[in-house]
Every structure is written in structure tokens, then in C-alpha cells.
Amino acid sequence: MKDNKNLRPIWQDDDPDSVKIIDQRFLPHQFVTIDLKNVDDAIFAIKEMCVRGAPLIGITAAYGVYLAALSLQYNPAGDDFITGEFLRLKAARPTAVNLAWAAERVLNRVLSATGIQNKIESARNEAGKIAEEEVDNCRNIGLHGLEIIEEISRRKAGRTVNILTHCNAGWLACIEYGTATAPIYAAYDKGLDIHVWVDETRPLNQGARLTAWELGRHGVNHTVITDNAGGHIMQHGMVDLVIVGSDRTTSTGDVANKIGTYLKALAAKDNGIPFYVALPSSTFDWNLSDGVKEIPIEMRNPDEVRYLQGLDKDAIRSVLIPPAGSRAANFAFDVTPARLVTGYITERGVCDAAGIRKLFPEKI
Ligand code: MRU
Q: Which residues are known to be catalytic?
């Protein structure tokens, strides 16, 4: 890390009654943190995207169940209360499967523990355990993905490897390393000559705001481009590979990710450029087999499309872009069919769609 600060997007300090997060709505221009003290705070943080990115949403929801467990001390409804709070957390955002997966893991620990103190302790331990597991997963995704970048670097005799990424699948979305960014950081740390094309990722600009901030802090050479530029730069030989993250991937390899990912996959296919998806096992939905038909796509507030937020002198402001009377629609994700994906970079290795079952035989 160039600026020597090892940050995480969620953590606990000495106060066991709260969980701290970076409020990502204000990055990169303001560094704001929030204390989550109850389930409503956790739901607000997830819905309003103070925290975002599939693994982080999952860990926030996991700590949300812990915050619910804390109030068992005053709540006679006990397990029924916790189950109700779990259901509220689960409904906060629909697309990232990590949310329900992580919250349910903590719920199950709470329900099987006896005594209020044990329930609280087991919730806290399980949420912390999930966070550490995701860190390990991302580290391993980085090591496996590094081999892909090394191979391209060898083929190019050490000349710059140009990687395109969409949205933010970095440590801000995943605790440490990130998913799509883990191979990028590993390649940079190993001294490979790399350059990253960062899609701005309208409407909330997670690429321009968050990925660019992360890469800059680490010292990685990068350029922010408009979402529509990808096809053009691919046609002109300026992209060697695409790596994106995922919010939910079916057992057959269909990938839900931030809106616009599908178009990048189509352009990559047309130009013979490898298109990789980096994801931990917590992002697979083992129950689904047709992503286009079955993955729920979040529709968000149209005002996120109508207004653009940025720094104006020293204040963050929003400005209206279309005519005041124009309707807008905000599809938050799309699904890239498995046939467009070259490979999946997971904590257990890299595979194609047919290989998912072989890498995770116990899941299917
Ligand atoms: O709406 P967001 O910001 O929560 O979207 C999630 C994402 O950041 C991405 O789609 C990302 O590529 C996958 S999450 C590691």
C-alpha cells in the first residue's frame, strides 16, 4: 500500500456493541466512517450502499445478525426475534447471494447455541470467521489469477499487460485484496508491468470513484474510461484481458455483475480477448442453473441515474443531468451467460464453466 495505511471496509474495535464501516458513498473525496449499533443501521448501510460489493454486503449482514443477538438481552421473543431480524436483513438487497448466505450462517449458530451470552458470542465469532475466510479466499484468487497475468506478460516479452475491469471488486467490496483486483495487486507486487483500464461504471461510478482510488493508493498504473469506451479500445489491441467480479454466479457459470458487464463480455468475445470472472465460493448460487431467467436483478432509485455526484471546489454536490420531466430506469446488474466467460478465478483454482462442478464437487 503506497500510503502505508492498511484499511478494511468493516471492523470492530474495543467496543463490542458496535461495528464500524467506511461510508463508501463519500469516497474518494471524503473519508467518513460510521458506527453500526443495531439491525436498522446495518440495513440502512446495505440499502443505501454505504457498504457494497457482494462479499462485504454478506459480512455486514453477518454482523447485523450479531447486532440483533445483542438485543436478545432485552427481547423476550428470543429465537423468533432473531429469525425476523435475519429476514429483514436478507431483504435489504436482492442480487448478491453472499448476503443471505453469510447472514444465514450466523443465524444458524445463534439458533443452535443455548443461553443469551453464548448466542451473542457465537454470532460474533461466526461473523468474524466469515470475514477472515473471505480474506483467505481473496488472497488465493490473487495467486491463481496472477498465473494468468504472468502468462500474458511472458507472451508479450514483459511489455505492459493491459487489464480492463468494471465496477469495484476491490478490497472495498471484499475486506482485503478484492476479487477482480486480487490478481492485479499480486501482479503489481511481483513487479510485472501492468496497466488497468477502469470503467467509470455509471450510475454510481464505483469504478471511477472506488477502483481508481484503491489502485492509486496501491501505486497501480490505471486510466479511467467511460463505460462505452471498452469496445473501441478492445478493437485497437489496447486490452489483453478483462477481469470482473460477480454478485451471484449460477452452478452453470452464468454471472450476475454490475450493469454493463454483459456488453464488455460481448465485446471481448468479438475481439478474441479473454474474459475472466474472479469470485469466491460464497458468490456461487448452487441452486440456480439459468442466470438470465433466475437471478433477481435489483431495480434501484431512478434518481441515481438522473443525478450525478462529485466534488465541487471543496463540497460534494449532486447535479441533475436529464430534463427534469424525463423518466429514468436503474437496472443495477446484468447477467453474462457462461458461453462468454473464458474462466472463473476462484480460491480453489481457475476453471471453465464445466469445471465448476469439478472444483466444488461437494456443493452440487
Ligand atoms: O451495487 P454494488 O456496488 O454493490 O455492486 C456490486 C459490485 O461492486 C460489483 O458488481 C462487483 O463487480 C462484484 S462484488 C465483488
A: 247
167 lines ligand 1 (CB under 6 A): yes
Q: State how far the Cα of 39 lies from the Cα of 261, in Å rounded to an integer.
A: 32
CB of 52 within 6 A of ligand 1: the answer is: yes
Tell me the CA–centroid distance for residue 117 and ligand 1, in Å: 35
Nearest protein CA to atom 8 of ligand 1, as residue = 53
Per the listing, cell 466534488 goes with 311
Q: Name the pTM for this structure.
A: 0.96
Beta strands 255-258; 248-250: pairing state: antiparallel
- What is the spatial distance between Cα 336 and Cα 265, in angstroms, rounded to a whole number? 7
For ligand 1, say whether the CB of 93 is within 6 Å of any of its atoms: no
The model's pLDDT over 293-324, given as tens digits with 9 standing for 90+, comes to 999 999 999 999 999 999 999 999 999 999 99
C-alpha 271/C-alpha 267 separation (Å) is 6
Show Cβ contacts of residue 298 under 8 Å, excluding neighbours closer than 6 positions.
Answer: 93, 94, 95, 332, 333
Give yes or no for residue 134 CB within 6 A of ligand 1.
no
Q: Write out pLDDT tens, residues 64-93.
A: 999 999 999 888 778 999 999 999 999 999
Rounded Cα–Cα distance for residues 20 and 123 (Å): 16
Q: What mean pLDDT is reported for the chain? A: 96
User: How many Å lie between the centroid of ligand 1 and the Cα of residue 258?
Assistant: 6
Domains of the chain: 4-133 (1.20.120.420), 144-363 (3.40.50.10470)
Nearest CA to ligand 1 atom 5: 53
Q: Could you tell me how many residues make up the chain?
A: 364
Amino acid at 61: A
Residue at 238: amino acid letter: M
Q: What is the whole-number distance in angstroms between the Cα of residue 219 and the centre of ligand 1?
A: 22
Nearest CA to ligand 1 atom 6: 53
